[in-house]
Amino acid sequence: MRLLQARLFLLLVIGLGSLADASFSGSDLVPLRKQDMKDISAAAKAISDMFLDPTTYDAKALSSAAQTISAKSGQTIIEHFSFEIPAAGSDAKANILEDRNRFARLADDLKAYADALGAAAQKNPGEMTNDMRMKPGKPMSGGPFGTDVSAEMLGSIPAEHLFHLMLQTCKACHARFREKHQ
Predict the structure, then answer these.
(1) Torsions phi, psi of 111, nearest 5?
(2) Cα–Cα distance for residue pair 161/76, rounded to 1 Å
(3) Could you give the CA distance from residue 66 to residue 120 in angstroms, rounded to a whole number?
(4) pLDDT by residue (tens digit) across 92-124?
(5) Is 34 within 8 Å of 10 (Cβ atoms)?
(6) Mapped to the 3 state alphabet, what secondary structure does the chain carry?
(7) Based on the number of CB atoms within 10 Å of its own CB, is 46 exposed (0-12), middle (13-18) or buried (19 or more)?
(8) What pTM did the predictor assign?
């Protein structure tokens, strides 16, 4: 256990950029990946609660939750799932390595939506505005089931819709790359 902790600490110190040079296996990263997913889930829950009850909106909390998701998505997820898949204790499917481009796109989409949510929090430091809410009947493109959106376009999408696109991204990734348990 101490060896695993030492390796994880070393990983954090040397950075993910040199991860390929370290002597890690997928099994070594499973606890870290699981913790990242728990952190993403907790951050998404905090954001969801704000949209469910706008009186609880806190721009700093939204920004912090979005930052957590951003930090644990994109290149971080890509690197964490670049070893021995499946690994002991992991629900990851081997097709992550086979369909690397699709996996990377979903990881990058998750980061882009989280970053856009963080920007929306900075633009709305007071209360949750109507501009942050989804509008009924207004179609939006983007996300894993639509077309790619540019950074400029992300800035024009209501924060609540960005949040739903982010959740769709998680769902799409889990449906394709995570083992289902009965």
Answers:
(1) -65, -45
(2) 24
(3) 10
(4) 998 999 999 999 999 999 999 999 999 999 999
(5) no
(6) CHHHHHHHHHHHHHCHHHHHHCCCCHHHHHHHHHHHHHHHHHHHHHHHHHHHCHHHCCHHHHHHHHHHHHHCCCHHHHHHCCCCCCCCCCCECCHHHHCHHHHHHHHHHHHHHHHHHHHHHHHCCCCCCHHHCCCCCCCCCCCCCCCCCCHHHHHHCCHHHHHHHHHHHHHHHHHHHECCCC
(7) middle
(8) 0.80
